[in-house]
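Fold these two proteins, one after the other.
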Amino acid sequence: FSFANFCGALYTQRPPHSASAVTRAAARGGRAGDMSIRLRELIRNVRSCKTQADERACIHKECASIRTAFKDENNELRHRNVAKLLFIHMLGYPTHWGQMECLKLIAGSKFLEKRIGYLGLMILLDERQEVLMLVENSLKNDLQSSNQYIAGLACCAIGNISSAEICRDLSPEVEKLMVGSNPFVSKKASLCCIRILRKCPELCDTFLERIGTLLGSRNHAVLLTCLKLMREMCITEPAMIEQLRRHTPTLIAALKNLVLSGYAPEHDVHGIVDPFLQVEILTMLRVLGRGHSETSDQMNDILAQVATNTESAKNAGNAILYECVLTIMAIEVESGLRVLAVNILGRFLINRDNNIRYVALNTLHKVIAQDTQAVQRHRNTIVDCLKDNDSSIRQRALELVYALVNEANVKVLVKELLSYLLACDVEFKDELTQRICTVVEKFSTDKEWHVDTIIQTLSASTSFESEETVCSMIALITSTPELQAYATHKLYAKLADQTNQPVLLQLAVWCVGEYGEMLIGGVPAGVEAEAPDPQTVVELLTSVMRSPVADVTTKEYTINAFVKLTTRFANAPDSLALIHKQLAAYSCSMSLELQQRSVEYSSLLKLDAIRAGVLERMPAFAKKDRQGGGGGGGGAG
């Protein structure tokens, strides 16, 4: 019972006051006349208030009138006063003083009074209040009422606010109503049992015996509520799943009747017969079939029928297909059925409704581990989702593309990711750059392509910083001798282009210092630029030291490069003089690390006996896992 429906009923059902009520009101000096305004009039008065103070004055005046009516035992208008009290409660004002009036209405004999009383009971009270125990006898009497609507009210109240004690005491009456001949009461009782199970899990076995009777009903509402109860039993007591599996043939037969039945106007939703019941049956089959091959085998045929016979032009059909896919992927079925489920999700991806596409992407990401090849067939459609206007769809497609990358398709998918990197919002660039670097590092088989792609990726994200990426690239270059000249020339070209990308700066400076003789000795295949002379290289490093975008870490790399170039450019006296000048300049730096390095390196250059050995190339080292923070930070050290 929603309060909106209740208000609408009051607006349309306003019985006139009896003559005796008017007479008694007049005898009390007209006070009842003030208290007799209807809920609609109170709402109108509240809405007409210009300020918060006016509203409070209006509410306080009405509360005083209601209190007086309660004190005078004005039974004829009690239900109206409680209705107004509920509206006042919705506005946030205290109404606890009216709780007992709800109990008096429930104890009455008229349906109108009971309806308002139960509504007030569920809104104004909760299971923790002791006053609720006073209504237990009324609940028991109403459960035994011959009026189905009064019994339904009692079930509704028990299902919303009953305590464990009330649930335990009234469960026998509710159990009787479950298997009664009245479907209206049966469905209410079934929903009521969900609350009872949550409060008293030990009663699960009691209701288990009634499931078969409920599943035999031809009423869709009873079937729907029974399935809800079955799911709650499985959640409350997982051991019940094994005992409920015996009802699998009944569920399959019910679902088959729904799929193959003709037009049924009382259950039709856009040409689909009772999609709510179909979805609930599929959900229950998923629970029963998970991890049980025998039960799963029974479902293969009906799942195939649902997947092929359900119309996907309307949302109702899409909801059924979605649940069917989830069921197929959760239970033990044939591979062909899994492919059919993935193809359904592939059709969802080309739907114009963004919600359906989002659901498809999200589900594909969950099932990719179960059938990667089937998902790979829809790779182009998934990649197209990266160009969608909806940012949430782009993000889900991005997550799915990451999961699709392997050694066979890494070049194709990384190319698409790079295109997306150039167009994505700034706040996503750093995360996307990190992801691209990770998949390239993990799946690349072409070392030169690896270097080119990392450079291209970093160039598109000027603010990205990652020590892990620096260490990973250094590990790759040191362990691949044939790649060292190529990587050094490529990174030097970026350095010469005045890049301000932190990771590129550090990689370029490190490679120039480590492999300086390769840089000036010749140009490897695949590099178009000419080899620079030593003086140009040292001047470029000097400009890095003066650059405002170079942080302290980058300058530490550059100091290291300077001292290493003293052995690489041993035959270039002009370059050596410039290097000594730079080291002397930074021996008075305000940065303690730069100052210490400059002083120590200047002293090292005077020790000819050990200088060459200390400044040899770094040996190849294995990078650590990315989760471990990168490996071998020998660049700046």
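Now the second one:
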Amino acid sequence: MPHSCLYTHHSQKHRTDVNGVMSADPRRVPSSYTLTEVSFNEAMELAYFGAKVMHPKTMLPASITPPIPLYIRNTFQPSFPGTRIYTSSATHSNRDKCVCGFSSIDSMALINVEGSGMVGIPGVAKRLFGTLESKGVNVVLISQASSEHSITFATTLEMAEVAKEGIEEEFRREIENNHISTVEIQKPCSIIAAVGDGMPTTTGVSGRFFTALGDAKISVLAISQGSSARNISAVVYTSESTRALRAVHAAFRLSHTSVRVGVIGMNEVGLSLLKLLEEQRNKLRSRFEIDLMVVALMKDGMEEKEEEENGRIVTLKEDGEKHNGDLDWNTCSITMEVYQSLTASTEATSDNTVAKFTPGDLSTLPQHVLSPDCAHNIIFDCTGETNVGQYHATWLKSGVHVITANSTGLSGPIKQRNAIDAVLNQHGRNVSYLREVTVGGALPVVRTLHDLLYSGDCVHFVDGILSVSMSYILYRIAPPPGAKAGNAFDEHSSNGAFQGVSFDTPCLFSEAVKEAVDLGLMETDPRRDLSNEYTARVLMVLAKELDDLDKCYDVEKIQDSSDQLFLDDECNDINALYTKVNALMKERVESAAEKGCVPRHVSSIDVKAGTIEVKIVDVPLNHVFAITPPSCECVRFFTERHRSYPLIIQGPSAGADSTASALLAELVNLMRNKVSPKSGTISRTTSADLANVV
């Protein structure tokens, strides 16, 4: 249309087969959306870098003064408002979305010309690009270091060899004299471009862009940015381009950050976690803009023949598969209903669910969690099995974050512990091993210890009640006086928010053990708990944080030196053992009462002496260990700054719901450090600010 005709139009409409200009390619970024408005400059930049909605030359006449607004609308959905292209866009006003969208160009090659003979020599660039022009090579992107030691440019794959041959022919003498050392092609590559008019006046854009690529484990091959600063381009390998697009798209809050989740251990904790992930998904999407997708579930680490035949892992149907039509990427996740329906079905391949049984084991679990297009992948270990803990290092090495309630990983053989250390030392920037729940459940024991150490404090001694089962049992056989009155006060002062349970009447040891089993605080066979195996593993995890004291110990060594209630492992008559221990503990309680004490199960780590102990100790009636409620833990830190009064962490750590909440909290804390900050952290520079600087 002639330019003179445009003056008579208030706007121009362009009909196409899409709803408008998208924030990214919807085939590669499913959460991309239609932009309501973009500027002419933004639309041209997006079009140059792969957005095929409208050619840049089509927009040129409308952008000339006086500008004419353009509307991109869908021919097949005429009621959809589409995208308005005019002089400005929302990127000027919304600092969290200073980037309006991302484009990509595939089938590219990156050519690097490098050599010391190029430094300070005039005319090198002229000869280089003159040669490319003569060969008909179109240069899409150029990057040169300030040292002038190398020039890098991108062109199409089909012209890469032509360009290389032409350069080698033009610079034949320089290559023979080693003034130019290499003419190298990297392929196939893709160019990822961030576009937005709000970028020049917003600080931290480049940092956010490249941090997102780094967190997604993307190798950036070349970088280019024009002086207008409305476009930042990065060259990446094509195999990583989809993951790169999704990562940067989410980093600038154009979509949610997807997190793929796998869970092993579908016991009470695992089922509670699955339910919690489902319940909190929308809230986490809204509050933190992270989208949790449960993609793999494994019952446990045990070998079962029937499960091997049908497949041991429940996985999400995706990657090209369909259920009732196209896969909905925004809501697709294994829910409690889906899991229970599938596991209750006699058919391994049910069509009425979004999940399926897949053959696999502990070694292949990460393969079902990892996706080349997703930057964040997590496995929750809700088991207590030693054979599962053996795979923690392998999972970390594969690139999966591990959040564990299973302490056997860090309390296993020294070789296993060293393997975890080695992976974290080598890949610690890319993977995390979160083990807070292994020590105190929902109590922040490990986090508090880290805070003390990282803030420069020196921990001298740690002790506490670390076994919820022994906490319950010893409280029941020797309850402190006055507990009922204390509960009554708390119920009154909290307006009924506190609902305590008090035990004023002591019971036999065997009765307390049975109660603990019924409450799910210990195994059906109590000998494993009463042998201090669990407590020893917890102490190993804590000792690792304290000058690697775990190097001198193992679980068996701690057990051998501890006060164990069941020493006769060969006796299979549990009732005979109960009778024997009942008499011993009754005598112990009476002896402690004569001293004004009650027996409590106390663990300790003496950092200076390098000792780890588990003892049954008589403590005064008014001591914090004596009044620690049943099934609660209590940990004390004696440090350089807390000599007179130890730092105490006390509270309930048992229960499936409490443990599941603590595991989810670990994930949220991890992702809060990965997801870009909300408005206010990235600052926008206004023209008034620039004037003040000048």
